[in-house]
Automatic annotation (TrEMBL):
Pfam families: Fe_hyd_SSU (PF02256). Residues 37-101 form the Iron hydrogenase small subunit domain. The keyword Repressor does not apply. One of its GO terms (cellular component) is periplasmic space. GO terms for molecular function: electron transfer activity; ferredoxin hydrogenase activity; iron ion binding; iron-sulfur cluster binding. This is Ferredoxin hydrogenase small subunit. Its main location: periplasm. The keyword Iron-sulfur applies. SUPFAM superfamilies: Fe-only hydrogenase smaller subunit. It is found in: Periplasm.
Amino acid sequence: MKKKSIGTISRRGFIKLAGITCGYAVLGLNVAKEATAATLEFIGIRQASVYNADKNLYKIRKSQDNPMIKKLYSTKDGFLKEGPCSHKSHDLLHTHFVDRSARLAALKEKGVELSL
């Protein structure tokens, strides 16, 4: 892997820098500042609306506050009364990866077309 020196700039960084420079040259400094400020204001408004929608849409926002989860893990009559990190909860709730790429390749060799 080739290491970058401190003075190098990536392609993406160069394109951003060139776009900003062209914007300043064409539009002038004041118009570019106003456009940047308007963009940042829009981003702030959008971000606030997303957070407000999330806050107002869901009554239970944390899984540990869900009454069904509390009942599931309750020590009195819960199905997983051993706790959240027990062997039983791990076996029932966690997924395991199974590599099926060899079977997929065999099907493709036979001419089977799959739409994924």
